[in-house]
Amino acid sequence: MLKPADNPLDIRNSMYRFDQLAKHRIPSPEHVTEETIKTYRELGYVAIEQVLTEAEVKAAIDSIDDVIHGRIVGPKIQYVRGRGEVKDKIEFDTEQEREFSVRKLHKFVDHCPALHHICFHPSILSVLEKMFGEAPRFCEDQALLKPPSADAGIEKPWHQDMAYGNFSYTKMVAGVWIALDEATLDNGCMHVIPRSHRNGPVPHYAVRDWQLCDTVVDVPKDEAVPLKPGGLMIFSGLLHHGTPPNLSDQRRRALQFHYAPESAKKMSAEEYKIVFTNEMTKAEC
Ligand SMILES: O=C(O)CCC(=O)C(=O)O
Known about the structure:
- It is built from 7 helices and 14 strands.
- By secondary structure, the chain is an alpha+beta fold.
- 39% of the residues are buried.
- The site of 2-oxoglutaric acid (AKG) has 9 residues, from strand 5, strand 13 and strand 14.
C-alpha cells in the first residue's frame, strides 16, 4: 500500500477515500433496535443523525469558548504544535486566532455543566447500556478541534482507541464522537474501516502520532461518516478510524467521550505491551 509523504494533501489523497459513505445510520436514539445492536457489533460503529438539540450544541460551543478564552479555568488545553508554548501568556491578535490555535481540550466535565450534561446524557447512556449489556462507566472527555488550515487542522492518523493507555480495558470500550459543527468530507469528518475491530488489537507506532502503521490500513475499505451538528457516532474501541487534515475554510469542532463496561478492568502493562506495541515482535513499521 502507499506510504504518504508528510504533506497534508498527499496524506489526504493516499490515506483516505471520499467516495464511500458509512451506511449504518439511524435517525435518533429512539430508533435503536436489536438489529441496530447486532449491526453495531458486526460493523463496529453506528451513526445517529440527531441526538443533541440546537440549544445543547450551542451551550457546548459556548463552554469550549469559555475554556479557550480563560473564562472557565481547570480543563486542560492542548495547542497546535508550535503555538501556545507559553500557554496563558501567549498573545493572539484576535479571539479567532486563539481559537484556531487549540487542538484539544480535556478534563472539562467537572468544570462545565453544559458538557457534563452531554457526557451523562440519558439517551447516550441508554444506547451504550444496550450495546455493552451492562451499565457504562465514563472514562474520559475530549473536545477535538480541527481549525481550517493545513498546519493547524492536522490529520488524526488511523488508530484504535484502546491502543491509548487510558482506554485499554479488558472488555471492549466505546467512543462517542459528537459533531458540534457540521462535519463534512472537506473539513475532516470521521472515517472508519467497517469490521476492522473484529481482527483485534494491532500494534501502534509513533509516526505522525501514536497510530497504526500506514501500510496496515485497509484504505480501499474506508467509509466517511459526515454528520450534522448534534449528530454522533458510537464506535468500538478497536475500530480502525481517523480523520483527514482540514484543508477547507470551515472549522470542525467535536466532542468525544469514552465509556467502558462497568465490570471491565484496566489491562496490565504487560498485556498492553503484548497486544498494542511491537516490544515483543520487534516488527518495524
Ligand atoms: O476528531 C478527530 O479529529 C479525531 C478523533 C479521534 O479519533 C481521536 O482523537 O481518537
